[in-house]
Amino acid sequence: MTKLTLARLDWGIDSMPNMSKYKVKMPQQHPDVRNKNFKEVALGYTKEQAIEEATRCLDCKNPKCVEGCPVNVPIPQFINAIKEEDFEKAYKIITSQNSLPAICGRVCPQESQCEGNCVRGIKGEPVAIGRLERFVADQCMDIPHEKISDKTMDYKVAIVGSGPAGLTCAGELAKLGYDVTIFEALHKPGGVLVYGIPEFRLPKDLVAKEIKKIEDLGVKIVKNVIVGKSITIDELFEEGYKAIFIGSGAGLPKFMNIPGENLNGVYSANEFLTRSNLMKAYDPENSPTPIYVGKSVAVVGGGNVAMDAARTAKRLGAKNVYIVYRRSEEEMPARREEIEHAKEEGIEFKLLTNPTRILGEDGWVKAIECIEMELGEPDASGRRRPVEIEGSEFTLDVDTVIIAIGQSPNPLIKETTEGLDTHSWGGIIVDENTMQTSKEGVYAGGDAVTGAATVILAMGAGKKAAHAIDDYLKNLD
Amino acid sequence: MYKILEVKQLNTLVKSMVIEAPFIARRCEPGQFVIVRSHKNAERIPLTIADYDRDKKTITIIYQEVGFSTKLLSTKGAGDYLEDVAGPLGVPAPLEKYERVLGIGGGVGIAPLYPQVKKLSKLGTEVYTILGGRTAELVIMEDEFKQYSNVIVATDDGSKGIKGTVVDAMKDIIDKKKFDKIIAIGPVPMMKAVVDLAKEKNIPTTVSLNPIMIDGTGMCGGCRVTVGGETKFACVDGPDFDGFLVDFDELSRRQSMYKDIEREYDKTHSCKIGLGD
Q1: Cβ distance of B219 and A410 shorter than 8 Å
Q2: Which chain B residues in 22-41 lie under 8 Å from chain A, judged by CB atoms?
Q3: Residue B10, SS3?
Q4: What is the pLDDT of residues A389-421, one digit of tens each?
Q5: CA–CA min distance A459, chain B (Å)
Q6: How far apart are CA B52 and CA A195, in angstroms?
Q7: pLDDT per residue over B69-106, tens digit each?
Q8: Is the peptide bond before B92 cis (omega within 30 degrees of 0)?
Q9: What is the pLDDT of residue A284?
Q10: Taking CB atoms and an 8 Å limit, are A224 and B86 in contact across chains?
Q11: What residue spans of A126-232 are helical by DSSP H?
Q12: Taking the complete model, does pTM exceed 0.90, yes or no?
């Protein structure tokens, strides 16, 4: 702190920072109310709250927060603009680097990125960068994205998938003047933003608006085209596309391979969430797609997807919802806020617990048998490896089991594209500096490369690929 | 949006639709399927492609009205548009030239059998087909099949062809002729019965499965079936599998997962059908 104070000797009295140790509280729906509806949990800062929080930022000369951001948003600059109450300026600063700020402000794991690096976090809570980003984006939803270049480039670029990686890559290339077409397999664009992340965490009309802004840059979105099935990568080249970005996501759910996994009432989190989010099964008045929860639900896993599934099950009327996770809370990969929200909403956490089999009756789930675990030596991921405690098996009576232990990259493109190298686990192999694959003119990013990760990492990859594609196409002749 | 060019009522319950779908018609092969959404908020319905015309850029789907969503689909007529048609999905059926193949179709399962029989015949295979239904009216596409195969009809009530099930007809024909392969598509109990007999006679048999699915691209895993002791996704690993290895009891149970919810929905919401988007 001494160093910081020294660096700030030029401050006048008026610009003294707000030294509160805590973030300005986020207004939110009461847990007992929100766990029965699908409306957004966090309601967003008011103008006054945003300005108050903004003044907690010390405007560091060497801002560590920016280093923590996968797309390098100039954070102190946009926060300064909030202090000046120039929200439009703040928005333009954010969108110079991030084309989906209303989404990132809501779903980024800020605690391990920008906010994790914030010096205010050393003694107290970091500046609520995510909440401020969300505030600015929500205020300025109607401001269109600006093109970087007025020139029209003669090249057509195809983007596979309209999730965060594809949308970002498409937006960047369109800003540079390219003729961009996104091919989407589902009937609605947005990828995981529409099929995976629930309405109560990321409202779908907001996703639709962000997508519309990308389309307004001239990006075309063709739905119901499954690249690898409806058309292949090589055929896209034949159709005149000069470069292709694959952002097809991690659309292959993992199962545990334990007995009972094919009983009625066992879902992959992908299926459960897709039914609820994409197909709107939570709104039976307007959607005929069915979903089953029963009285008690066990969700296996400790990531954001597990939290989303558990909280969705609760909202769909399940009385008891358990998170079953084999490590301790500390190792949970979910965003801190989601874990807190889940607990507030009445989700029960069965930690250091691993399922061993699912028990059925007449073909339907009746219970899940679990075993208690303890943490041993750190494994390859650096986290302490969970080890079974012999003889500690117990059963939980449940009607539904949702498996949320991760997804692998979707194999459809790999299977139909010659010359596209992948890892044995399915991830597309790329040069990390350019996101270029083993096939000329083909780039890839997001979960298709990394396996299930975060929205913002996918966006970072999409952006990096866009600039590499720009370089590639400029040197094509 | 996908234009419906033609609708035909094949019997009281079954309809065929010819749909303009250039991406699908260009590449689809027998055995593959599409996902159809008739209206904006409608369900995604997987339907096997019953025929296709690459020049006219059309595909044909044939479906039976069984619940809310298929009834909703039936509110669309020629000249109307379907909200979404995605595909072709699944792996093409493994077809090559054989000496002689027996196709067995039951009920609306006759429709997806048709492109396979047509292709086999064009490859130079001699094809026999058994088309079965409860009663004469439910046996569809007999004339189409006659162009490519020797057709035997079996009805439970004897109103057409031989009186009995497709398995009765199968017993009869496999005693008389030698078949290299059987393709059976229809209700699960029918496919199971065909496979049981084929096993006895050691005639390789493929079946086409239609479990519950949402996306059809491997994403949801709802369509998982046990084949040879391993879990497979019908959408990306199938829908055609070696019938000898399929766990039909599990399939049948999984298919009924939403029966109660759907029956209730159908009852309370049928008034909404036809109200448009």
Answers
A1: yes
A2: 23-24, 27, 37, 41
A3: coil
A4: 999 999 999 999 999 999 999 889 998 999 999
A5: 21
A6: 31
A7: 899 999 999 999 999 999 999 999 989 999 999 999 99
A8: no
A9: 87
A10: yes
A11: 129-139, 164-175, 192-195, 204-216
A12: yes
User: In this structure, what are the phi and psi dihedrals at residue A458, rounded to the nearest 5 degrees?
Assistant: -65, -40
Which chain A residue has the Cα nearest residue B70? Answer: A288
CB atoms within 10 A of CB A380: 6
ipTM metric: 0.93
A83-100 pLDDT per residue, tens: 999 999 999 999 999 989
In this complex, the residue of A187, A268, A292 whose CB is nearest that of residue B221 is: A268
Q: Residue B154's closest CA among B174, B137, B139?
A: B139
CB contact under 8 A, B27 and A229: yes
Q: Can you read off the two tokens belonging to residue B146? A: 């006659």
Pairwise CA distance, residues A193 & A373, whole Å:
34
Whether residues A187 and B84 touch (CB distance < 8 A) is answered with yes
Spatial neighbors of B89 by CB under 8 A, at least 6 apart, are: A226, A229, B32, B33, B34, B35, B46, B216, B217, B235, B236
- Each residue's pLDDT, cut to its tens digit, for chain B (277 residues) gives 999 999 999 998 899 999 999 989 999 999 999 999 999 889 999 999 999 999 999 999 999 998 888 999 999 999 999 999 999 999 999 899 999 999 999 999 999 999 999 999 999 999 999 999 999 999 999 999 999 999 999 999 999 999 999 999 999 999 999 999 999 999 999 999 999 999 999 999 999 999 999 999 999 999 999 999 999 999 999 999 999 999 999 999 999 888 888 777 777 776 565 444 4
Would you call A29 exposed, middle or buried from its count of C-beta atoms within 10 A (0-12, 13-18, 19+)?
middle
The alpha-carbon gap from B95 to the nearest alpha carbon of chain A, in Å, equals 18
Of B86, B220, B265, the CB nearest to A185: B86
Tokens found for residue B199: 């096993």
How many angstroms separate the CA atoms of A183 and A161, rounded? 6
Chain B positions touching A404 (Cβ under 8 A) are: none
The verdict on a CB contact (< 8 Å) between B88 and A230 is yes
Of B39, B107, B34, B47, which is closest to residue B68 (Cα–Cα)?
B39
Taking residues A235-242, report their average pLDDT: 96
C-alpha to C-alpha distances, A394 to A211, A265, A267, A308, B188, nearest whole angstrom: 47, 20, 21, 25, 37
- Categorise residue A46: left if φ over 0, alpha if ψ from -120 to 50, beta otherwise: beta
CB A359 within 8 A of CB A395: yes
Least Cα distance to A42 among A132, A123, A127 occurs for A132
Q: Detail the DSSP E strand segments found in chain B.
A: 2-9, 14-20, 33-37, 45-53, 58-64, 81-82, 84-89, 100-106, 126-133, 150-155, 162-163, 181-185, 205-208, 224-227, 230-233, 240-242
Please report which helix (H) or strand (E) contains residue A364, including its range.
strand A364-378
Interval A119-143 mean pLDDT: 95
CB contact under 8 A, A230 and B87: yes
Q: Do A289 and B43 touch (CB under 8 A)?
A: yes
Quote the pLDDT of residue B84: 96
How far apart (Å, rounded) are the C-alpha atoms in residues A254 and A452?
A: 11
Interface A–B counts its CB contacts (< 8 A) at 115
